[in-house]
Design a protein that fits this description.
alpha+beta; ECO RV Endonuclease, Chain A; 3-stranded mixed sheet; 3-stranded antiparallel sheet; 8 strands
Amino acid sequence: MIQLATYSATESALLEKAQWLMGFTLGEIARQLHINVPSDLKRDKGWVGNLIETALGAKAGSKPEQDFAHLKIELKTIPVDTQGMPLETTFVSLAPLTQNNGITWQTSHVRHKLQRVLWIPVEGTRTIPLATRRIGQPVLWSPTPEQERQLQQDWEELMESIVLGRLNEINATLGEVMQLRPKGRNNRSRAEAVNQFGEKTQSLPLGFYLRKTFTAEILHRFLQSQNEIKPL
């Protein structure tokens, strides 16, 4: 019997715990942790992620570090459809709208978060009651050189728009695998920013998000590797 909500000293111990969750429903895990299941996610958008974080013993919460900082692993739950395809983009981190001169891809928060990710797919089809949605097979991932190149290229192009104050030109169509989108409680949320004249201004908070096509590729490659017939 795996002990949930406990510290994992090693990567293999964390992965074993994540693999143990596979096949359980969210309701079953919530009962083990004595956590109430909301009727839906309208007012509890982050409930699924919080449940998995609790189950796996993640400690970072809202801190600007990986969920398992001692292992340098970030945790991401990802809602998928019946074919295992991601249903949503994946939030990575807030974009620095000020004090961003000198930041490079190598020193960026986005790269830091994406160096090692434990993906936990969860049934996300809305017609399935929340409590009966099942947890899928975990994927422990680090970007390939090509994926890192794609991420770096998008990050550099998007950050250039921010640094040059071209916030009005930023929209969700920019970026091959990663995009910038508003990230706030509502459309009245504001953050300090700098306009194209170098003057302080106010903007919607922006966040970096991975596109569904990119996360679908991560999951697909993993399943493909699992199904490969290994030579004798």
